[in-house]
Write a structure and sequence with these properties.
By secondary structure, the protein is mainly β. The chain has no helices and six strands. The two termini are about 15 Å apart. Bound molecules: zinc ion.
């Protein structure tokens, strides 16, 4: 299961999460997945869009339509 590193679009802290193809709707790319920043000073949800190799294309601050899973970041 790939691990991805990125930045939370709310607080700009570095985040890390695990994702695999079962976490997204593979019928259309980039595919959205919801990410919860598991941190007491943030805790906010955002939408990350990934391509077929689960690389992050872009992200949005809030919960956009089309996602099928919510992933919590790893500490
Ligand atoms: Zn955050």
């Amino acid at each position: 299961m790939p691990i991805r590193f990125n930045y939370c679009p709310h607080c700009n802290e570095k985040i890390m999460f695990r994702i695999d193809l079962g976490d997204i709707d593979t019928s259309q790319y980039p595919a959205p997945v919801y990410i919860i920043h598991e941190d007491t000073s943030c805790g906010k949800i955002s939408t990350f869009y990934v391509d077929s190799l689960l690389r992050i294309s872009y992200k949005e601050l809030d919960k956009k339509p089309g996602g099928i899973k919510t992933i919590r970041t790893i500490k």
